[in-house]
Amino acid sequence: MATDLTPAQALDWAFAEPRTAKLATVTADGAPHVAPVWVARDGDRLVFNTGADTVKGRALARDPRVSICFDDERPPFSFVIVTGTAETTDDLDVVRRWAAVIGGRYMGAERAEEFGERNGVPGELLVTVTPTKVRGALAIAD
Fold it and tell me: Is the pLDDT of residue 1 over 90?
């Protein structure tokens, strides 16, 4: 039987290891768009980088509503879905700092600065998601 998680437990599970998340946004014509993103945690908020001119960046400029899904594809399967609103900044000091944190989380601390420099450039954004709903369940196939 699946174990439902509290919002705090769900976020703890989502960030217990560097899982690639799936970000859902709404395109200009109202269609859903899903893309993989690397995500870090800033307290109860989630942060990731994207380009201002990407589908994600343009969608967020029009409509800040997002959903982010983390999952474990191994049996017995688990997931966390975060629904929230996004804010963006192009402040290069902030973008670069978080790009290093995010890159280090996924690629190792020894490569953090490399990713900060690579992704902390003009045209890149830091996206901060404030959750409005967090749902998660562990072992859904048990």
Answer: no
Token pair listed for 73: 């594809």
8-state DSSP, 109? G
Distances (CA, A) of 112 to 21, 50, 73, 98, 99: 19, 17, 27, 10, 8
- Phi first, then psi: what are they for 20, rounded to 5°? -75, 130
Could you report the per-residue pLDDT of 82-108, keeping only the tens digit for each? Answer: 999 999 999 999 999 999 999 999 999
CA separation for the pair 18, 142 (Å, rounded) = 24
- Domains of the chain in start order, with CATH, are 3-138 (2.30.110.10)
Of 103, 11, 8, nearest to 49 by C-alpha is 103
pTM here is 0.96
DSSP annotation of 76:
T
How many residues are recorded in the chain? 142
Arithmetic mean of pLDDT, 21-36:
96
